[in-house]
Amino acid sequence: MSMDLSQAHAPIGQFLKQPQDKDEWGKFQLTEEQITAFHAQGYLAGVQVLDDRQVEILCSELAGLMKKSHPANHLFHEYHSNESKDPGAVLFHALGAWRTEPGFHDVLWSPAFLVPASQLLGGPVRFWHDQLFCKPAHHGGVVAWHQDYSYWTRTEPMSHLTCWIALDDSDRNNGCLYYIPGSHRWRLLPVTGLTGNMDEIMTVLSPEQKEAFRPVPIELKRGQCTFHHPLMVHGSYANRSERQRRATLINAFRDGVRSAADEALLAGVPSIPRGEKMEGQFFPLLFDPSTARQ
Q: By C-alpha distance, which of 128, 34, 121, 129 is closest to 78?
């Protein structure tokens, strides 16, 4: 039985080198122009968060995690070797990798993620959950258009942020992420499914939203990330290319977000009573800019 790494609320291996002084922390700060662009468009793409060595570590760990025989498989909150609703496609999707392997655990404390996340959230960063999305070559499945917060209404207020990290070069050919710029200013939409019909979302859009529905591809090099707002409408098309497309996501929120449900917030996690602050073993505080050495 593998150790549950959620018990460790600090890096445990050699995956990262933490900044040692104000100047080193400052290298990871976003510019005012980048922050303004995020709030205007609902996303910020092309931020480098991992180097080649770190990507290789995660890809090596991922290869093991994608096997159902992995000894830490039971630690995942969700594990779908194929969540695609298309019988001719495959979409691997799992939540909880940080509990299973040291690289996926330590990446949560990457300063290249935490400093921008704190700037975009406007305060201390607390962990929500991670995700893996993997599309094999030739028959990789879609991730249908959706808003992340539509799946997260069991937490409030809506002070959340997603960091989508490419583990392969991601482009239009192999199923990259797409955004609808400005859709973060729309209302919360009804859930229309995560892995089914890409066009299902059209059934819940107003005429004005349909007119503004102009997808923009987010092409990234491996190790780069894109940050997006919890109401940003996003999705990705099938991978019919010769290359796989793997990604890991870190979902976070500003410290102070509360439980909005009395039932368990994630499978295998003790419930937090409605109205109480999200914290504890599974929701660690990752970064507080007021106490960090900046």
A: 129
- pLDDT tens string, the chain, 294 residues long: the values are 679 999 999 999 999 998 988 888 889 999 999 999 999 999 999 999 999 999 999 999 999 999 999 999 999 999 999 999 999 999 999 999 999 999 999 999 999 999 999 999 999 999 999 999 999 999 999 999 999 999 999 999 999 999 999 999 999 999 999 999 999 999 999 999 999 899 999 999 999 999 999 999 999 999 999 999 999 999 999 999 999 999 999 999 999 999 999 999 999 999 999 999 999 999 999 999 987 754
CA distance 38 to 228: 8
pTM over 0.85: yes
CATH class of 38-257: mainly beta
| Among 198, 191, 190, 184, CA closest to 238 | 198
Query: Where in the chain are the domains?
Result: 38-257
